[in-house]
Amino acid sequence: MQNYNLTYKPFGNKAVLIEWPAEVNENILNDIVSYKRYIQKYFQTTELVVAYHSLTVIFNEEINFKIIEKNLKDIYKLNIETIVLDRKIWKIPVLYGDSLGLDMQQFAMEKGLSEEAVIDLHQEALYTVYAIGFLPGFLYLGGLDEKLHHPRRREPRLEIPQGSVGIGGKQTGIYPQISPGGWNIIGNTPVRLFDIANPEVCPVSVGDKVRFYAVNRYEYELIAIQVKTGVYQFEKEDYYD
Amino acid sequence: MIKVLKAGFYTTIQDLGRFGYRDKGVPVSGAMDTYSSSLANALLDNDQNAAVLEMTMLGPKLKFMTDTEIAISGAYMHPSLNDTPLSNNRKYRVKMGDVLNFKGVSDGFRTYLAVKDGIQSPVVLNSRSMYVPITTFAQLKEDTTIPVNTASGHVTEYAHIKTDEEWYSGNDIEVFKGPEYDLFPDIKKRLRNDYTVSKVNNRMAYQVEEVFITHERSMLTSATIPGTVQLTPAGKLIILMKDAQTTGGYPRVFQLTEKAIAKLAQKKAGENIRFELLT
């Protein structure tokens, strides 16, 4: 690990919040994920939540903050080598536009781009998962091309279909369940990023990468059937810096 | 088995919560008032984590299809068994065919019904707590059944635990400083005021009506836990409860204790609360 100047704060009487400099930065994220792995070895019963520049260590009973803080600091100091992280690139098929990309036409028009250009820009980028939250399996993705940054819709929808792929502000993401929301919906993925029938529930972890790729209607339906019958395997490959 | 004749206003199955999946964005869930749910379980010698019914404001009408034992804790909902009134915080035996009926709460907001060995609904991701999309339903529905064990007919000593039934009547809510407490210099002054529980309150969050402090602080999304108090730019306090999302982007100014969450869970719209800062 890189010996950032970290701050440790009590978060209630059962949790500790550890913060790195407040930046959206991949080196920081990697440092956090490495530290998280080490903490897991020493405190097996904790829950560890990584988000952007913070790591929250949640215990299941009351803690003595001073003692835990010292333990955590020792772990950070002792393990100055960043462990090789087994990070993945998850490849997410998307049917762009069509009847499921509810806002694609209007979005492309407002951006002054063709739909093809929107699709190209959206699938060219390699996105980084900076956090998982908001909904079970909702990925906070960094790396959206500036040309696709766009404000949320003025009128949020009460129901956005499961699997919708949208753009809101500087972010892109996938709605893992039906939910209300204000993002511009440009497509839909048949894969399920959160599925209790899958032993892993949500295969993606913070620190992983995501790449979208376009599929046609026929391919979409085929994958949808595989997902429904439980035989779909996520497309993934190892990621190294 | 218990048959649900009437579901009540908002009745759910809850244990102590779903732990181990917060890094995937899964809320903890679990009983809002764990003080009362644990008490009801203790009366039956159940595990603390045994699943109970959490009943909100107006309780259900239930028919027992098996013999068992029950205990009721939390808000007083005028429970009756075959039209005979029951008391809270006491163990009762029920027989197959008995009908347990609840009415509206006369004080507090949430009532817990424990059954011997706990409710036996399926465990999903380490917990029986209802939360969509983890469980199929968000709340109990009429004409459905709740699986329970048959408790063999031992002679029941009518245990009655002496409890402070007024424990949630005060308006003080104990809080620690939250991670972003120090960003707001005026915060201590604002703590002296009373705040009114707003109509916007449910298992995800409670809000108060008054504006606390308006601000323009933005922050990167970070973890939240039940009891985290978020401060929106418009000055609204959002007190996260058991079904709250696991991350948030608003400054976290306070953190409620578990007992304070339990106490707040017994408050309803219009009631006053006051934050007591613990050091």
UniProtKB/TrEMBL annotation, chain A:
The keyword Hydrolase applies. Gene3D superfamilies: 3.30.1360.40, Cyclophilin-like. Residues 6-204 form the Carboxyltransferase domain. GO terms for molecular function: ATP binding; hydrolase activity. It holds the Pfam family CT_C_D. Keywords: ATP-binding, Hydrolase, Nucleotide-binding. This is Inhibitor of KinA. It comes from Zhouia amylolytica. The lineage of its organism: Bacteria, Pseudomonadati, Bacteroidota, Flavobacteriia, Flavobacteriales.
UniProtKB/TrEMBL annotation, chain B:
Residues 23-279 form the Carboxyltransferase domain. Keywords: ATP-binding, Hydrolase, Nucleotide-binding. One of its GO terms (molecular function) is hydrolase activity. InterPro entries: CT_A_B, Cyclophilin-like_dom_sf, PxpC. Coiled coil: none annotated. The keyword Hydrolase applies. The keyword Hydrolase applies. Gene3D superfamilies: Cyclophilin-like (2.40.100.10). Pfam families: CT_A_B. This is Biotin-dependent carboxylase uncharacterized domain-containing protein.
